[in-house]
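Duplicate of earlier report; HXXXD-type acyl-transferase family protein input re-posted below.
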Amino acid sequence: MFQFYWKTESFAKNKLIRGQVTELVDGIFIGITANHSVLDGTSFWHFFNSWSAISRGLIHLPKLPVFQRRFFNSINFPIQISKSHVQNFPDDFVVPHFKERVFHFSKQSIVTLKARANAEVGTGTTNQMVQISSLQALLSHLWQSIMRNKNLEPNEDTHYCFIIGGRQRLHDLPQEYFGNVIKNQKVTMKVKQLLEQGVGSVALEMNKVIAANTGEDFNKFIETWIASPELLKISTISSRTLATSSSPRFDMYGNDFGWGKPIAVRSGSANKFDGKITLFCGAEEGTLINN
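Output:
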C-alpha cells in the first residue's frame, strides 16, 4: 500500500518526506516516510498531529514548530561531512526478508512485569531509590526472551540499543524544536549474565545507562560527532543485538483527519533488520504494541 519508503534515502535525488493516502473498502490508510536526517520521532509526530488538526479546520495550532538553530551556539550550520567520508559509506547490504510479528502487551501484564522488576531491584541496599519504568521492564523481558531462543554461546556479548532523546536533557531546547535530537545508546552484557539474572537486574543496567545521559553528555556527543561523523550501517549490526525505536509517549491515536481516530499504527519496511523492535502505544490506554 505504500511504495515510497526507500525514496527518501538520497538528498540529491529524492524528496525528504513523502506521503500517500490510500482509500480502502472499509477505511483509510495513511503512509508517511521521511529522511531521518531531517527529523526524529518527536518532530515526525508533531508534524502528523498538526496535519490532522489542520485537516479538521483548526486555524491556530497550540504548538508551533520551532525551526531556529540558535540553541546550538557552538555549531556552525550546516554541518559539513567530507565527500570522501560519504563516498566510503555506501551500504549495498540487501536485508533478507524476515518474518515480522506484532505483540500486544495488555496494561495488566505491563503492570505485573514492572512490579516484579522493581521488587527484584529493591532487594539491594544501594538500589532503594531506583525506580524501574514500565518500558525498561518490558524491554529487558524481550531481550532475555529473544536471546534465550537464539541459543547463543554463554560468553558471547549481546547488546541492546535504544534511542536517547535530547530535548528533555538540553534545557534551552524547546519540545517543539523541529529537527533530529537523538542518539543511540547501548547496553552490553554476556549472554550467560543476561539469562541467569532476573528481569529487574537487567532493567537496572538499562536504568543506569539512561540516567548517565545528562545534558552535558549529550552536548559532548554532538561535538564529537561533528568532529568525526559516524554513520550507521545496517550490515554491521550483529544478530546478537536488539534495537528499539519509536516511543509510547508519541501521540499516535489522537490523530483525527475527520474520519475518526485511528484503529492501528504500524511501521513500514525501512530500517528493518533481525532484532529490530518498533514500539507503539496501544489504542487502549496503558497498552503497548511491538512490531
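The mean pLDDT is 86.

Merging into the original ticket.
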